[in-house]
Design goal:
By secondary structure, the protein is mainly α. The chain has one domain: dinb family like domain (Four Helix Bundle (Hemerythrin (Met), subunit A)). 48% of the residues lie in helices and 3% in strands. The chain is built from six helices and two strands; from the N terminus they run αααββααα. The protein has a two-stranded antiparallel sheet with strand order 1-2.
């Protein structure tokens, strides 16, 4: 397992990795909180996003397919899909140091300056951790999105989500929980997700 040397990103990657390892093959077609996508599609999207971050940071290849048009058909297991993407992301972010003049990201604003280098790392962590939550609740697993992790990711969400509403993020839900009392619920609501989501018919 490759470490990025950024604790927040490594925590988020581990959350996604552990959930993916427990996704049963029979659940790939199951619905998720991402209404238009099933479990297999969220897995493909999550892997593609991390490859996109890696490609932007290193100038290397990004995902072979559009992460925003996943088919849901996996060539191998969820772990076999995700692990190369997480390894590439970790290796790429390991080269990002605090104070780096500009950090490339695959979504608007496409570069972040030195003061927000940490936010670039947190943006990738946000993506991984929230999709780990999506997959966990869709497949009956315990959520890996802890209050501490959600609180740490909230600043990146506040910085980056608004320009991407309707594309990468759904409209925020209101009223949102108090972030001090329920950081997980507040983060999910800000990103357009209900923290009490359950699969249809459950």
């Amino acid at each position: 397992m490759t470490a990025s040397k950024w604790d927040l990103l490594d925590q988020a990657y581990e959350a996604l990795r552990s959930v993916a390892a427990a996704v049963p093959a029979a659940a790939l077609g199951a619905p998720t909180p991402c209404e238009q996508w099933n479990v297999g599609q969220v897995l493909q999207h999550a892997a593609g996003d991390q490859l996109a971050y890696a490609g932007r940071l290193t100038g290397g290849p990004g995902p072979a397919e559009d992460p925003f048009a996943p088919t849901g058909t996996l060539a191998g297991s969820p772990v076999e899909l995700l692990e190369p993407a997480l390894a590439a992301g970790a290796e790429a972010f390991a080269g990002v140091l605090p104070g780096t003049a500009e950090v490339a990201v695959p979504l608007p604003p496409f570069t972040l300056d030195a003061e927000t280098a940490v936010a670039a790392v947190a943006a990738a962590a946000l993506d991984a951790a929230v999709h780990a939550w999506d997959l966990a609740v869709a497949t009956g697993q315990t959520s890996p999105l802890t209050p501490a992790l959600a609180a740490a990711l909230s600043p990146a969400a506040r910085l980056l989500a608004e320009p991407l509403r309707g594309f990468a993020y759904a409209p925020a839900l209101a009223p949102a929980p108090d972030p001090d009392a329920d950081p997980v619920g507040a983060l999910l609501a800000f990103l357009g997700r209900r923290s009490d989501w359950t699969p249809p018919g459950a």
